[in-house]
Amino acid sequence: MVKKTALEELDTKISLVLEKYNKLEEENRLLKETITSSRETEAKLRQEILKLKEEEELKDLELEDIVARIGKSIGLDTNRTEIPMAS
């Protein structure tokens, strides 16, 4: 049975610690890249959401205008809250 000296044991432990440190450092780098990528994706998606909301608002305004013009062309007053019922 070979006995290790204290220096050899310390060297082995330091090597293990350095190996773990390097693995954790690489994992940390990958996580930072993932976070950066996720933030970029989030920013793009937020911009797309804002654009879609603006488009939706424009479509709603267009629909309201169309409804008003149709109502006007058939003689309905779309500003009134009640529609007269035919008797």
UniProtKB/TrEMBL annotation:
Keyword annotations from UniProtKB, A to Z: Coiled coil
Specify whether Coiled coil is a keyword of the entry: yes
Coiled-coil zones: 7-64
Q: What is this protein called?
A: Cell division protein ZapB
